[in-house]
Amino acid sequence: MEKEYIKINRETYDILAEEYKERNYAVKDDFYKNVMFKDLDFSEGKKILEIGPGRGARLNNFLEYGMDVFAIELSNKMCKLCNTIAPQAHIINDDVFGVSFNFKFDFIYMEAVIHNFPLKDVHPLLKRVKSWLNKDGILICTTTVNDEDSEGYEAKDDYDNPRKRFRHRYTEDSFDNIFKENGFKIIDKKYKEEIDEDRKKMWQIVYARKK
Asked: What are phi and psi of 176, to 5 degrees?
């Protein structure tokens, strides 16, 4: 039986899909290409999985590198956006816990998605992610920087049609620790500042390998 928070998150992102499509984000492609992905061996033929691609902007970036691109997206309407923006990517419309692969990935990318899981489900999530990575594969994972840890249902109040979805908030230390506790070694950490008229957030970006 589907968990309640997964059902609510799916419904919320289905409703917000059109706003994601039209939104003009403050952080542009050049940050991703020149900072976030700068030190990674993104090259033709590498396999990458994005979990929670939203409207699919990063999928398109990965395709530009010539990578073999896969994505798991919970929201059916978000999947439709991804198929429009990145038609060559392999989009799987499912809950991440319902998916399996018979091959490994060189990279797994999780931007602004790990915080949509309660902490008790983050541990099995990362175990699953670890099993999908090649021996030397890299996980790239982001969430916001917060002063204290908390979790529960919160409205996305920086959207015109605010809807509640599940949200876990991490401090820097607690975010680092979830990787260390689940068999990963952090190899790098970067930051992304997002400041526009609606959003004032600092993001932490962890790069990790399997121990």
From this structure: -60, -40
Closest Cα partner for 17 from 101, 85, 80? Answer: 80
> How far apart, in whole angstroms, are the C-alpha atoms of residue 138 and residue 106?
6
In the chain, what are the domains?
Answer: 4-210 (3.40.50.150)
Token pair 């996980």 in the structure block, residue: 139
Sign of CA dihedral 94, 95, 97, 101: positive
Sign of the C-alpha dihedral computed for residues 31, 39, 112 and 147 taken in this order: negative
Reply yes or no on whether the pLDDT at 96 is more than 60.
Answer: yes
Average pLDDT over residues 104-129: 97
Residue 102 token pair: 């018979």
Query: What mean pLDDT is reported for the chain?
Result: 92
Dig out the tokens for 64 from the structure. Answer: 């530009």
